[in-house]
Specification:
This protein is of the alpha/beta class and about 230 residues long. It folds into 2 domains: about 5-125, Response regulator (Rossmann fold), CATH 3.40.50; about 130-225, Winged helix-like DNA-binding domain superfamily/Winged helix DNA-binding domain (Arc Repressor Mutant, subunit A, Orthogonal Bundle). About 40% of the residues lie in helices and about 20% in strands. The strands form 3 sheets. A 5-stranded parallel β-sheet has the order 2-1-3-4-5, sandwiched between helices. Helix 6 (about 160-170) crosses helix 8 (about 190-205) and helix 7 crosses helix 8.
Length: about 230
Amino acid sequence: MTDVTVLVIDDEPQIRRVLRNALSERQIRVREAASARDGLDVAASERVDLIVLDLGLPDVDGLEVCRDLRGWTTAPILVLSVRDSEREKAALLDAGADDYMTKPFSTVEFLARVHAHVRRARLGPAAGGPPRIVSRGVTIDLAKRTVHRDGTPIHLTPLEWQLLRVLASNAGRTMTHGQIFSQVWARAHGDAQHYLRVQVANLRRKLERDPVRPALIITEPGVGYRFDDEE
Protein backbone atom coordinates (compact mmCIF):
# COMPACT_ATOMS: atom_id res chain seq x y z
CA MET A 1 0.00 0.00 0.00
CA THR A 2 1.27 3.46 -0.87
CA ASP A 3 0.27 6.91 0.34
CA VAL A 4 -1.92 5.52 3.14
CA THR A 5 -2.77 7.37 6.36
CA VAL A 6 -4.37 5.61 9.35
CA LEU A 7 -5.87 7.49 12.28
CA VAL A 8 -5.64 5.70 15.64
CA ILE A 9 -8.07 6.96 18.31
CA ASP A 10 -7.11 5.25 21.56
CA ASP A 11 -6.33 6.59 25.02
CA GLU A 12 -3.81 3.83 25.84
CA PRO A 13 -0.25 4.97 24.92
CA GLN A 14 1.04 1.39 24.75
CA ILE A 15 -1.65 0.37 22.25
CA ARG A 16 -0.93 3.40 20.10
CA ARG A 17 2.77 2.54 20.21
CA VAL A 18 2.15 -1.06 19.12
CA LEU A 19 -0.08 0.04 16.25
CA ARG A 20 2.27 2.86 15.23
CA ASN A 21 5.23 0.47 15.04
CA ALA A 22 3.29 -2.18 13.11
CA LEU A 23 1.84 0.29 10.61
CA SER A 24 5.10 2.20 10.16
CA GLU A 25 6.87 -1.02 9.17
CA ARG A 26 4.45 -1.14 6.22
CA GLN A 27 5.26 2.49 5.33
CA ILE A 28 1.80 3.58 6.49
CA ARG A 29 1.52 7.06 7.99
CA VAL A 30 -0.06 7.16 11.44
CA ARG A 31 -1.97 9.97 13.08
CA GLU A 32 -2.83 9.53 16.75
CA ALA A 33 -5.48 10.88 19.11
CA ALA A 34 -5.97 10.06 22.80
CA SER A 35 -9.55 11.31 23.01
CA ALA A 36 -12.73 11.30 20.94
CA ARG A 37 -12.70 15.07 20.41
CA ASP A 38 -9.07 15.10 19.23
CA GLY A 39 -9.78 12.16 16.95
CA LEU A 40 -12.81 13.84 15.38
CA ASP A 41 -10.77 17.01 14.83
CA VAL A 42 -8.01 15.07 13.03
CA ALA A 43 -10.50 13.11 10.92
CA ALA A 44 -12.25 16.35 9.92
CA SER A 45 -9.09 18.28 9.08
CA GLU A 46 -6.99 15.63 7.32
CA ARG A 47 -7.53 12.96 4.70
CA VAL A 48 -7.34 9.55 6.37
CA ASP A 49 -7.77 6.20 4.66
CA LEU A 50 -8.85 4.22 7.71
CA ILE A 51 -9.80 4.94 11.33
CA VAL A 52 -8.93 2.61 14.21
CA LEU A 53 -11.34 3.35 17.05
CA ASP A 54 -11.23 2.31 20.69
CA LEU A 55 -14.55 2.20 22.56
CA GLY A 56 -13.36 3.11 26.05
CA LEU A 57 -12.41 6.71 25.39
CA PRO A 58 -12.24 9.16 28.32
CA ASP A 59 -14.61 11.82 26.93
CA VAL A 60 -17.17 10.25 24.54
CA ASP A 61 -18.33 6.65 24.19
CA GLY A 62 -16.92 4.94 21.10
CA LEU A 63 -20.37 4.06 19.79
CA GLU A 64 -21.30 7.75 19.62
CA VAL A 65 -17.98 8.55 17.96
CA CYS A 66 -18.66 5.86 15.37
CA ARG A 67 -22.10 7.32 14.59
CA ASP A 68 -20.61 10.81 14.35
CA LEU A 69 -17.82 9.71 11.99
CA ARG A 70 -20.11 7.73 9.75
CA GLY A 71 -22.33 10.78 9.34
CA TRP A 72 -19.69 12.59 7.27
CA THR A 73 -16.81 10.28 6.32
CA THR A 74 -16.66 7.12 4.21
CA ALA A 75 -13.27 6.04 5.60
CA PRO A 76 -13.42 2.44 6.90
CA ILE A 77 -13.76 2.24 10.68
CA LEU A 78 -12.02 -0.64 12.46
CA VAL A 79 -13.06 -0.92 16.11
CA LEU A 80 -10.42 -2.22 18.51
CA SER A 81 -11.69 -2.90 22.03
CA VAL A 82 -11.55 -5.17 25.08
CA ARG A 83 -15.35 -5.36 24.98
CA ASP A 84 -16.59 -8.51 23.24
CA SER A 85 -20.35 -8.43 23.79
CA GLU A 86 -22.21 -9.73 20.75
CA ARG A 87 -24.91 -7.12 21.26
CA GLU A 88 -22.32 -4.35 21.35
CA LYS A 89 -20.62 -5.62 18.21
CA ALA A 90 -23.95 -5.65 16.38
CA ALA A 91 -24.75 -2.13 17.59
CA LEU A 92 -21.40 -0.84 16.33
CA LEU A 93 -21.82 -2.45 12.93
CA ASP A 94 -25.32 -1.00 12.71
CA ALA A 95 -23.81 2.39 13.59
CA GLY A 96 -21.48 2.19 10.60
CA ALA A 97 -18.33 0.39 11.77
CA ASP A 98 -16.76 -1.83 9.12
CA ASP A 99 -14.92 -4.29 11.34
CA TYR A 100 -14.29 -5.25 14.95
CA MET A 101 -11.27 -6.76 16.67
CA THR A 102 -11.02 -7.67 20.35
CA LYS A 103 -7.96 -6.85 22.48
CA PRO A 104 -5.54 -8.53 22.86
CA PHE A 105 -5.05 -8.94 19.13
CA SER A 106 -2.58 -10.24 16.59
CA THR A 107 -0.71 -7.48 14.76
CA VAL A 108 -0.46 -9.79 11.72
CA GLU A 109 -4.24 -10.11 11.57
CA PHE A 110 -4.64 -6.40 12.27
CA LEU A 111 -2.38 -5.45 9.35
CA ALA A 112 -4.19 -7.90 7.07
CA ARG A 113 -7.54 -6.30 7.90
CA VAL A 114 -6.18 -2.79 7.43
CA HIS A 115 -4.81 -3.75 4.03
CA ALA A 116 -8.09 -5.39 2.97
CA HIS A 117 -10.28 -2.46 4.04
CA VAL A 118 -8.06 0.16 2.40
CA ARG A 119 -7.87 -1.88 -0.81
CA ARG A 120 -11.65 -2.25 -0.98
CA ALA A 121 -12.21 1.42 -0.23
CA ARG A 122 -9.88 2.42 -3.05
CA LEU A 123 -11.66 0.19 -5.54
CA GLY A 124 -14.60 2.58 -5.37
CA PRO A 125 -17.90 3.11 -3.57
CA ALA A 126 -19.69 0.04 -2.24
CA ALA A 127 -23.06 1.01 -3.70
CA GLY A 128 -23.97 -1.78 -6.10
CA GLY A 129 -20.64 -3.41 -5.38
CA PRO A 130 -18.09 -4.42 -8.01
CA PRO A 131 -19.64 -6.02 -11.12
CA ARG A 132 -17.55 -9.19 -10.79
CA ILE A 133 -16.15 -10.90 -7.71
CA VAL A 134 -13.81 -13.90 -7.77
CA SER A 135 -12.94 -15.76 -4.57
CA ARG A 136 -12.01 -19.36 -3.78
CA GLY A 137 -13.08 -20.69 -7.16
CA VAL A 138 -16.42 -18.86 -7.11
CA THR A 139 -17.13 -16.14 -9.68
CA ILE A 140 -20.05 -13.80 -9.05
CA ASP A 141 -21.12 -11.43 -11.83
CA LEU A 142 -23.41 -8.91 -10.15
CA ALA A 143 -24.31 -7.21 -13.44
CA LYS A 144 -25.28 -10.43 -15.25
CA ARG A 145 -26.66 -12.07 -12.07
CA THR A 146 -24.64 -15.25 -12.66
CA VAL A 147 -22.59 -17.47 -10.36
CA HIS A 148 -19.98 -20.08 -11.33
CA ARG A 149 -17.93 -22.43 -9.20
CA ASP A 150 -14.77 -23.72 -10.86
CA GLY A 151 -16.29 -22.69 -14.19
CA THR A 152 -19.57 -24.57 -13.65
CA PRO A 153 -22.80 -22.50 -13.56
CA ILE A 154 -24.59 -22.59 -10.21
CA HIS A 155 -28.36 -22.17 -10.07
CA LEU A 156 -29.61 -20.00 -7.23
CA THR A 157 -33.18 -19.27 -6.23
CA PRO A 158 -34.18 -15.56 -6.31
CA LEU A 159 -33.89 -15.40 -2.52
CA GLU A 160 -30.48 -17.06 -2.51
CA TRP A 161 -29.28 -14.62 -5.17
CA GLN A 162 -30.49 -11.63 -3.16
CA LEU A 163 -28.69 -12.89 -0.08
CA LEU A 164 -25.47 -13.54 -1.99
CA ARG A 165 -25.69 -10.14 -3.71
CA VAL A 166 -25.97 -8.31 -0.38
CA LEU A 167 -23.08 -10.23 1.19
CA ALA A 168 -20.79 -10.05 -1.85
CA SER A 169 -21.49 -6.35 -2.43
CA ASN A 170 -20.22 -5.76 1.11
CA ALA A 171 -17.30 -8.18 0.88
CA GLY A 172 -15.01 -8.07 3.89
CA ARG A 173 -17.55 -6.27 6.05
CA THR A 174 -19.50 -8.05 8.76
CA MET A 175 -23.22 -7.57 8.14
CA THR A 176 -25.52 -7.94 11.13
CA HIS A 177 -28.55 -10.21 11.02
CA GLY A 178 -30.79 -7.15 11.00
CA GLN A 179 -28.91 -5.42 8.17
CA ILE A 180 -29.04 -8.49 5.94
CA PHE A 181 -32.64 -9.29 6.79
CA SER A 182 -33.91 -5.81 5.99
CA GLN A 183 -32.11 -5.75 2.63
CA VAL A 184 -32.99 -9.26 1.51
CA TRP A 185 -36.52 -9.54 2.85
CA ALA A 186 -37.22 -5.78 2.64
CA ARG A 187 -38.65 -5.71 6.14
CA ALA A 188 -37.24 -5.46 9.65
CA HIS A 189 -39.53 -7.87 11.50
CA GLY A 190 -39.53 -11.66 11.80
CA ASP A 191 -36.97 -14.15 13.05
CA ALA A 192 -33.95 -12.86 11.13
CA GLN A 193 -31.50 -15.40 12.54
CA HIS A 194 -33.71 -18.37 11.66
CA TYR A 195 -34.42 -17.26 8.09
CA LEU A 196 -30.78 -16.43 7.51
CA ARG A 197 -29.52 -19.68 8.99
CA VAL A 198 -31.61 -21.68 6.51
CA GLN A 199 -30.68 -19.62 3.44
CA VAL A 200 -26.98 -19.38 4.33
CA ALA A 201 -26.88 -23.17 4.73
CA ASN A 202 -28.38 -23.52 1.25
CA LEU A 203 -25.83 -21.13 -0.23
CA ARG A 204 -22.94 -22.90 1.44
CA ARG A 205 -24.04 -26.27 0.05
CA LYS A 206 -23.91 -24.79 -3.44
CA LEU A 207 -20.82 -22.60 -3.19
CA GLU A 208 -18.43 -23.84 -0.52
CA ARG A 209 -15.90 -26.58 -1.21
CA ASP A 210 -16.55 -27.79 2.33
CA PRO A 211 -19.88 -26.48 3.69
CA VAL A 212 -18.98 -27.76 7.16
CA ARG A 213 -15.89 -25.52 7.20
CA PRO A 214 -17.01 -22.50 5.17
CA ALA A 215 -14.33 -20.20 3.80
CA LEU A 216 -16.52 -17.94 1.67
CA ILE A 217 -19.48 -17.04 3.89
CA ILE A 218 -18.15 -16.67 7.42
CA THR A 219 -20.32 -16.73 10.54
CA GLU A 220 -19.67 -13.99 13.08
CA PRO A 221 -21.26 -15.68 16.13
CA GLY A 222 -24.22 -13.82 17.55
CA VAL A 223 -23.68 -10.91 15.15
CA GLY A 224 -24.13 -11.87 11.50
CA TYR A 225 -22.17 -12.97 8.43
CA ARG A 226 -19.19 -11.81 6.38
CA PHE A 227 -18.36 -12.61 2.76
CA ASP A 228 -14.62 -13.27 2.54
CA ASP A 229 -13.14 -12.22 -0.80
CA GLU A 230 -9.55 -12.83 0.31
CA GLU A 231 -7.85 -15.84 -1.23
